[in-house]
Structures are given as C-alpha cells and as structure tokens.
C-alpha cells in the first residue's frame, strides 16, 4: 500500500483521492482552508445559498465514470437535473435567444430567434466541431499530453485538416457563421477556458459541441454538492481529509518527492504527492528551488487566464421570466477581451462588459418568494504591479454599481428588489484559492501550442503529480475530473 498525500481539496484533488483510495492506496488530503471545493465554492447567508464558482455541469458522463470506478453509481448518491433551456442570450440589437438544452431543438430555436438559415449555419459548424472532438479528445483530453501526441496527429492528414491548428476559434467560426450574433455566441465559448477567441485555437470549437451534445445540468441544492459527494466517496474508500492544514513545502529526497511539510512544521511522509494547487504556486513556492520550476512558474504568470468580478445578489422577489442562465452581451466584445487579456499595461475594468447571470430557481437555494443571483463579468487578473489593482480603495464598490447599472440598461434591473449584495473581486478569489491573480483557469488557451504549454500531470520531480484546472487538460469541472483520472492511471494500483 503506497502512501499518497493530496495537496488541495478542490474537485481535482478530491477526485484523485477517491480514485487512488479505491485503488488501495493510503490517501491523506490536506487543504489550507476550512472548507472543501476550492473554486467549486459556496456561500450561505440568510437562507440563500450561492454557487460561487461553476454554476453549470456539462459532460456529466465524466462524473458518472468517476463514481462507477470507485463504487456505487452516481445516481445512487447525487441526482442531476437537465435544463430545458441551457441559457437565455440577449444580443446588443435586442434579440433574445433561448438556447434549448435538447440538441435536437437547437436548430429550430436559432431559426425562430435569429432568422431562417441560422440553425443550418450552427449545425454545419458543429459538424466540424464534432470531427475535431473525434480527433482530439482521446490524445489531448483523456491521456497525458506529450509531443508524441502531436506527432501521431500530424501523421493523420485528415485529422490535421479538421483540427486546423493554424486557425483561431474566431477564424474558424467566420468560415461557417455569417450572422454576427452566431459569431458572438461562439466567441463566448473561448471564455470557458479563460481565453481570447482571436488567439485561442480552433480546437476550442469542441466546447460548444460537447455542451450541446451532452446537455446542460444542474445539481439540486447547488453544484457544490458535487465536491461534497466526491469527498464522501473518497472517505468511504479510506481517505482522510484534513482541513485548515497549510502545506509550505513539497519535500524531496534523492531527487524524488517523499512528502510535504506543513506550516506547523509537521512532516507528512509519502511515496506519492498529488498537487491539486495552482501550478504557478506549486512551481514558484512549494517545490525545491530548480531552474525548470522557476521557468515554468514565470511562464504561467505571463499567460494567466482571465478572472471574474462577482456579485452575489439576494432579492426579495422572483424576477422576470425565469431562466437558469442568462447572458447579456456587450456591443463591443473586442474591447472586453482587450481589457481583460490585452497587454499588461492596458488591462482595465471593462466599461461595457458582457454580464452572466445565474438564477437556479432551486427552492433549496433561496427562501420562499426570493431569489439569489450569481452575477459574473470577465475581469483582468489582480495585478498591482502593472495591471489592475482590485484592492484599490473604492474600486470594488464603484465597479459593482457600474455592473448593476449595465444590467439595468440591458433590461435586467434588480436594484428595486435588492436585499443585500456580496462583492468578490479577482483579488478575493486569488486569496481564497491561492491562485495567482485570481486567474480562474490558471493559464489561458491562447495560441496553437497552448495544449502543450499547460503543465503536465507528471511533474519533472519523480513522485510528484498535478491535478486541477491549472494542469493538463485544463479548467472546468469535466476536465478537472479527467486530470484526476489521468493521474490515477499514472500512479497505478497499490
């Protein structure tokens, strides 16, 4: 039986702990905060419950695979609820599109909302996205990424032509989508990886494909229940979870990871260390000094993904016609991407941001007759040295008012019904999750080589492995769980 220490009780760390414990390893999870979940967080006040991170589950089969591999099936412990309407989109020209959760209904909905032929445009684009998915998901998402994968793909001419590594997501979309509203819809999917569609690879076309092919899902009671249920599965399989336990060093002996040192000086010996922390923090602060680690940390710092500015709004009414998710688009998406991902010295709070609103309509998440709204706008990472200093006095409250004003101008005025609000800036997210600048996805997916620049699951230090959104294959609930599956396979059975 191998001793495994998992650093971080985010979903990646918990999923790795469940898989490794089920495989017979002696697993201890250590988490610096007093709560599990990491970015899959929750906030409760006055009977309101908010998911403070992801508010939508896609690719549910990945979660189902995790539970099938570790014991009883998912359905026995956690219900999933499909969404009839995946999202309501409000475009700058006033058009409203209710995107169905049922893939078969999407084409007719697009034709009705945007005009005849729009469904065919989107369908043709998704056919291309499906071919990209078929060519890439096994070597690029479900396996440890290596240069051999690129070589293997390059030998299959058809796959290379489909994947189009020389094209950006926006460039690929322009080839199929002639309605500017469809192109704006596609641009939004780049933000799922914290990226700019003008620089993100065409392979990100798979993001809308998998969302629509496998549906959009809610967890009654909030998505944080996923973290709780995975934690419970890990504990059932023998893992130990220690909260309020900060790791200050990954200890090595003879060049191999042999445990971790805690803030109080305790040494936890291990045969394997699995790091579910931000990769830039791992390589910049926790591993022994090494030029390779420093270079990796510096590169990750330069390529941070976008962050988010969040409002948690408690209202005293059920507002408007209910839709679980709504997106209020800006009329200048390029200005938004320039503001959050442009050159460091030019980043700024976005003047006219796209606004994302989640209002689950879940009776377990708000008092009767009331509603809790999670509001998110894309934001530059916290960077006092040369970007946006989100701790600047007064900035958070001033920008919160600006976001509420923006919502009102776009037909979604919540202020007359507002009981209270909580504001979360990128600086707050960075402190809560020990993530550089509060970058939600670690590094962005900008550039054709981005998949190969994301930190690998097997680190240069023998015995040290990486899971979570800042490591391969990337951020978002499904990919984080896939990283745990990859690491479990690399570690092997006890």
UniProtKB/TrEMBL annotation:
Keywords: Carotenoid biosynthesis, Oxidoreductase. Pfam families: Amino_oxidase. GO terms for molecular function: oxidoreductase activity. GO terms for biological process: carotenoid biosynthetic process. The keyword Oxidoreductase applies. Pathway: Carotenoid biosynthesis. InterPro entries: Amino_oxidase, Carotenoid/retinoid_OxRdtase, FAD/NAD-bd_sf. The keyword Amino-acid biosynthesis does not apply. NCBIfam families: crtI_fam. Belongs to the carotenoid/retinoid oxidoreductase family. This is Phytoene desaturase. The lineage of its organism: Bacteria, Bacillati, Actinomycetota, Actinomycetes, Propionibacteriales.
């Amino acid at each position: 039986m191998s001793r495994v220490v998992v650093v971080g009780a985010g979903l990646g760390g918990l999923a790795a702990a469940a898989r490794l414990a089920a495989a017979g390893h002696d697993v201890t999870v250590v988490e610096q905060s007093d709560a599990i979940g990491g970015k899959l967080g929750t906030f409760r006040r006055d009977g309101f419950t908010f998911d403070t991170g992801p508010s939508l589950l896609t690719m549910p089969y990945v979660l189902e695979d995790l539970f099938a591999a570790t014991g009883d099936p998912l359905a026995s412990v956690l219900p999933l609820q499909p969404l009839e309407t995946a999202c309501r989109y409000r475009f700058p020209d006033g058009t409203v599109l209710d995107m169905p959760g049922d893939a078969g209904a999407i084409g007719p909905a697009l034709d009705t909302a945007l005009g005849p032929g729009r469904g065919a445009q989107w369908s043709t684009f998704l056919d291309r996205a499906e071919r990209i998915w078929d060519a890439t998901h096994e070597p690029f998402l479900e396996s440890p990424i290596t240069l051999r994968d690129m070589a293997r793909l390059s030998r299959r001419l058809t796959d290379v032509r489909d994947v189009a590594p020389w094209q950006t997501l926006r460039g690929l979309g322009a080839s199929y989508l002639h309605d500017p509203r469809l192109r704006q819809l596609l641009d939004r999917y780049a933000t799922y990886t914290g990226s700019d569609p003008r620089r993100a690879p065409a392979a990100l076309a798979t993001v809308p494909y998998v969302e629509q092919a496998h549906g959009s899902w809610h967890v009654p009671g909030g998505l944080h229940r996923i973290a709780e249920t995975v934690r419970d599965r890990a504990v059932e399989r023998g893992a130990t979870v220690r909260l309020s336990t900060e790791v200050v060093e990954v200890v090595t002996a003879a060049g191999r990871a042999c445990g971790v040192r805690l803030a109080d000086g305790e040494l936890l010996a291990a045969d394997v260390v699995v790091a579910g922390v931000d990769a830039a923090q791992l390589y910049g602060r926790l591993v022994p000094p090494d030029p390779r680690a420093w270079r990796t940390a510096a590169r990750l710092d330069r390529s941070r993904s976008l962050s988010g500015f969040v409002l948690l709004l408690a209202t005293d009414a059920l507002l408007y016609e209910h839709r679980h998710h709504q997106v209020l688009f800006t009329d200048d998406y390029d200005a938004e991407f320039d503001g959050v991902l442009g050159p460091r010295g030019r980043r700024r709070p976005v003047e006219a941001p796209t606004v994302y609103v989640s209002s689950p309509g879940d009776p377990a998440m708000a008092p009767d007759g009331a509603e809790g709204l999670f509001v998110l706008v894309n934001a530059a990472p916290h960077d006092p040295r040369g970007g946006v200093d989100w701790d600047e006095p007064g900035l958070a409250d001033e920008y919160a008012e600006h976001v509420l004003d923006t919502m009102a101008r776009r037909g979604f005025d919540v202020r007359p019904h507002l009981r209270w609000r909580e504001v979360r800036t990128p600086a707050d997210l960075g402190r809560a999750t020990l993530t550089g600048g509060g970058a939600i996805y670690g590094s962005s997916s900008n550039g054709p080589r981005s998949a190969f620049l994301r930190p690998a699951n097997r680190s240069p230090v023998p015995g040290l492995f990486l899971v979570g959104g800042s490591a391969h294959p990337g951020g978002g609930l499904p990919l984080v769980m896939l990283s745990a599956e990859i690491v479990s396979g690399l570690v092997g059975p006890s």
